[in-house]
Amino acid sequence: MSPEDRPHAFRRGRRGNRLTAWQIAYQTDDHHLSLLGTDEMAEQISRVAPEYRSGPNSMSSHWTHVLYASGPPRDETVPFLRLLTEVITLPAIPNITDAIALGWYKDPSDDIDSYDWPDSEVGKLVHRGKYRFRFHPKLQAGVGRELAGHLCRAVERHPGFRGADVVVNVPGHDSAQLSFGGQLTASVAKAMQKPFVKLRAKDAFRFSAKSVPPEQRAEIIRGQFFATESLDGMSVLVVDDVLQTGESVRDAARAALEAGASLVYGICAARTMRS
Predict the structure, then answer these.
(1) Is residue 128 classed as helix, strand or coil in its secondary structure?
(2) pTM for this prediction
């Protein structure tokens, strides 16, 4: 992206950001990668390409981070950077190494009240699967397969996520039913040809997250989930349909770590714009 196309300032979103811009500059024996994004983005890049090291940002005040490495970039670096411009990198969530969402649940508009914002494309898919087609299994399954396809394509472009050993779910609020999120997770695991290890909840039923005030959700969720088998030394990918406060994903990650997981990644289809 050329300097004249770059914004003059970067505003970190409280609930997540897309990578705004990036640029690779080649020198004789090395290169540097300039980013306009969050610390979580720079850290993800350094984790999947450990040869990068942080350095002084002497290139331009427009950039938030500058990373340096010897030799040319890896073949997978540019596709990964492009992914980060499309998905939402979430702010740090305890117990989770990296977490992303495919997109926002709503499409914001300055011209209408936020409560009237229309659903985004990914938000429409989630809404159909969770609510509209809830009692129509065939239609729900079709939406689930489409959404799982989007998730799998994002995972394939993320060097860390695609290397996960197992996939785990975020248990729904009613243990007697397999939630849409659980079905989605199973579909992703099957498509990735990865083992699906179910997490379960201690309480058979709890209030759904959206029916509880944000300040009470952590108390209701904390310590609820547990793994049904050992995850000793494994890297884990937690999959969910919607992320609101992040408490459910956080507790799923805690359960995975307590079962022996070495690290945990998180991916969800839609990120809400409010708690």
Answers:
(1) helix
(2) 0.90
The DSSP call for residue 200 is E
pLDDT digit string, tens, across residues 93-139: 999 999 999 999 999 888 888 888 999 999 999 999 999 999 999 99
Q: Can you list the positions of beta strands (E) in 71-218?
A: 88-89, 98-104, 166-168, 196-197, 199-201
The amino acid present at 126, given as its one-letter code, is: V
CA dihedral 68, 88, 15, 242 (to 10 degrees): -150
Distance CA 274, CA 259 (A): 32
DSSP per-residue letters across 9-60:
-----TT-B---EEEEEE-SSEEEEEEES-HHHHHHHHHHSTT-EE----S-
Q: Which residues contact 140 (CB under 8 A, 6 or more apart)?
A: 128, 129, 133, 134, 180, 183
Quick one: residue 16, left, alpha or beta (phi over 0 = left, psi -120 to 50 = alpha)?
left
Q: What is the number of H-type helices and E-type strands within the chain?
A: 7, 12
Which helix (H) or strand (E) covers residue 159, if one does?
none
